Queue: 4 jobs
Job 1
Amino acid sequence: MKIDDYNETIKACRYCLMCRHECTVGNITQRDTNTPRGKSLVLFAEQKNLLEWDRRAIEVMYECTNCHLCREWCVSEYDVAPLMMAARADIVDMGLAPAGAVLMKDNLNNSGNPYGETESKLEEWKKSIQKKSKADILLYFGCTTAYRRPEIAQSAYAILKHLDANMTILDDEPCCGEPYFIMGYQKEAKLQAERSLDRIRESGAHTVVTTCPTCTLSFRKSFKEWGVEVPKDYRFIHISEFIDEEIEAGRLNLNGVLQSSVTYHDPCSLGRELGIYDAPRKVINTVHGVEFHEMRLNRNYSPCCGNGGGVQATNINIALGAGEN
């Protein structure tokens, strides 16, 4: 069992209440079972054959947003999120994956994206721009940008175009593989990661600018953890970091004026996982007229939006509750 690799976490967390006040899911359901302590205790009981892998035990393992907030409030820095990913992999290996996880896997297999849609919202737009077969920079959008927030892709492209960057995009951009992994399909995640790297190689680019925090996390960190060999001369950079670097180098000037009060939400993947906190704030504060205000909880203590960990596919009410909070 993959959870056996996390025995130290299970033993440390099963009776500890230190982080439960900040658990994204526990605060929504108000169930102790959903806190890091509760989930660890369930897994301890499973290991000791005190519980069966029934429907509710499986649901609990998939009711985690993978936000890593528990680690930030733990004096010993234990992290229950990787334990949940291991538990899900064990559940998949036992053939007990819940319907939401199976549906996402089928969507990825059949449509190439977790939403199960045959065409992204960028397809018509892509036809209107000239694409290079080879370039120094690859602009990588990610599934959520392409299928849900196309304006982010178009804005990022406009910035690189303004800079006259030697860049290209992919016509049939593949998923990075993270949705497979968070649902417990670790073998499929590794294969998908290798496919996405193959496409990057074909582009000739050695710098990949991403608009999706989760894709950034996959390329920089997750692939190596999955056993995928990433070329050492490849550089993966989030769009906020890219813009910040261009401003610092004097190649990009934000001369417009935006009279607005602005705040910034740190994504779990970009913040707690990759430590990218300053670049987005520096870019925002460069805009003339903007009055920037930090949220009460920010940076490594930033609340989870609820869209991570695949929870939107297995328990939409939890995802919506986190978003409302």
Job 2
Amino acid sequence: MNGISAMSIHRQFLERVFQKLLLNFTWWVNIKDSDGNGVFEGGFLGLDNIGVFNRSEPLPTGGSLEQTDATGWMAFFSLQMLNIALELAKENPVYEDIASKFFEHYLLIADAMSFQSARVNEDRKGKTTNESLWSETDQFFYDAITWGDNHKQKLPVRSLVGLIPLYASLTLEPEILKRFPNFTKRLDWLVENKQYLIKRNIGCMNVKGSGDRLLLSLVSKDRLLAILSKMFDEDEFLSNYEF
């Protein structure tokens, strides 16, 4: 291959793709997170037929649609960019800092999407509004419509929308954490100093798994079991027919 190793070619491809994905990620954050709160309201995922409304058109109710699948996808996107950045950092240490940035993006999106059920606002009519996309009552993720800062209504419809957050998971091997001390130092600092993020309803980062692996997951064990109980229920998602 003219003296160029296959690994070098793969790395060049990965770096070219990373730069383009970085532009795409920035577009999502700047355009589709209009409130800057880590909850996303648009973008074409090719999944438009799994929601209640035609997302290519304005909502018939007015307001904005906060999308569980788009937000879950962005958490997944953050983790994949983190993973690519760490791979590229093996030869270019500049990417180690970028990996740390995507870890922070992941934390903020995860918090906005899955924790804020504990934060309740009171609207002008004295009603409370739940800011999270997670329903504590139903133990499932739903889309929501918002009309201004203090008026939100979840759409309690069981669909694949509520399963997309399961995509957002990544296992960090102990070898990776040892190889990139700056990334690990930043991660450890966040775990130590941002306990209000770390101990919430995402995968626990205070406890390492088998072989000292660290799991990054958008859902906690309890929420995972709650979602899977519906996913494997023939009265909910699971078909009783085989392919």
Job 3
Amino acid sequence: MNDPSSLTPSWFDTTFMGHGHCYLWRSDLVILHTASDVLIAASYFTIPVALYVLVHKRKDLEYDWMFVLFALFIFCCGLTHLMAVYNVWNGAYYVSGSLKALTAVVSLLTAALIWPLIPKAVALPRPAELQAANHELEAEISRRSLSEQSLERTQVELKGRIEELTRTKARLEQEIEQRARLEKQQQEQTQALKRSNEELEQFAFIASHDLREPLRKLMAFTQMLMSGKYGAFNEKGEQFVSYIREAAERMDALLNSLLSYSRISSSREHHEDVDLAQIVDEACRDLQLRIEETGASIQVEDLCRVHGDPAQLRQLIQNLLSNSLKYCAPGTAPFIRIEAHLNEPRGVVM
């Protein structure tokens, strides 16, 4: 009777005959089968490595677990072919059968899971659709880039305008501050001018009062001398007395003008048509003695009539003549030429 222990399989039992006996140990058959199985096993071991590298590098792949099952299935197939090479010389058929059983389980699991996956795989975008989507995405990126560039230009322009507005604001603030300062200065100058006018008016009143009294006496005494009660004058003396009287009258007019000018707040200058020739003649008579002392020659051209204040014009011309007589070269008789002509934009030029 057989030993009961023989009923229990030994996984590494090598008492079985190898497949080489079936090949009658013909070298051509042995080489054909063993070489083919070795190459198949080598290929089956390489494919899982390639699938692992793909899954490792493309972590965004959909259904990556299916790639793992395929790799395991192919690896098991490679083990069965490698075991077939071993069994050519050794009869380890329990190990070979176990590897085939493992391969069968993995194959059934892979087959069971791949069929439900087919509709999902079919629903994945086709390459043409992906390419169209990529083109649309590239166009959208291009439009977005153009929009961003336009936005950047707008931001630069806006920044420039903000800087310009900031500079304008600062300039306006400076102008406002300067204008406020000028207005304050103007107010101060106005107050100072007002005080000066008040002082001038007060001075004019005092000067007019203090100077008018001796002027009245001078005019009175001149009138008495011209009456002839105190002796007669020769022609030259009468001329000089006449000069004194005219000078006193003009002095009285100057005092009145000074008083009128000081009252700026309550009166205006008196303007009228004035004969410049008469004004020049009166100024020359006032300076007659100085003209004779310097030996000056005065040539008066045809003068026109102007509109102005007679007293101020007389004072102006008299000052000009006086300066001309005063500031001449020593030992030289001055020559003064007086002329006037109309100049529409500027009035009268002398």
Job 4
Amino acid sequence: MGTRIIDPQPLIFDHAAQFFTVTDPNLAELVDLWSKKGLVRQWHGQIGELEAGGHFVPFPPSPPRYVGVNGMRPLAESILSETSMVNVVRPCWVSTLEPYNGKWYLSEKGKPCGHFDAIVIAHNGKCANRLLASSGLPLIARQMKRLHLSSIWALLAAFDDPLPMISIESAIPFEGAFVKGVDSLSWMANNTAKLSGLQSKGPQCWTFFSTAAFGKQNKVPQESVPSTTAEKVKEAMLEGVEIALGLQRTHLKDILQSITVMIADYLQSGGTCPDEFAVGLHNEFQPVKGHDIGQFPGLDSEGQINKACDIQLTM
């Protein structure tokens, strides 16, 4: 979960998770509690698929989509603040993990970082592989090497005027769309409408995600993005937005107020796993179907609602 706030206006952008859905009954109870506390709400705006040229097909309203009231990051911070079970330590770089007597012993360049009952590795493939090399779990280590990360560019753009949608066939302007048929673009979302619940006055803040292929073609270190690459990516992605909306080229530059580009690594495909502790122990991962930046179970366009959605990892 990531939210960027640019002062002084402020301009607010969700630049990681855009929304979430709920299928598990236990999680549904928790989300209901978050809703009562004012941490999350349903995103009622139009979401669907957008094809190049402005053809938009909305998703049905079910299952509900949820967003953080003030962005996704404040939700994560609120969850963290309400528990005594989590202690965030930073900066901390874990370079080695070793099993001993039923515990995991972590260290940073020989300096002990503590021992724990369980560990969760949420890192890119190379670092995860390095940590798992001494884990004593060769099957899981082997499976980790098969995971492919996609470098995805995120373009955060504020526009003085609403994006023109004269070619969009839906009577109601969409607020989020998975983009098809555009090389540089896979997702676009109107943060201003999403977070305020209405089309408020002032700049419109949009988040645009590139395709995985575009990210691979323009991959650079996340820590140091060359200005020339950032400018190239900005131009290509804005052009992709114009193609998706069916606008004339350079139209968006006239209403562009502020812009930021960043690159991050994401898992290429998402899915659901019915056996949470068996992944990697016996069978190989199988390909999954989904959008370029991940699949949201249960989200299909109205034209596809009767088609089976094969998004599970075969165990």
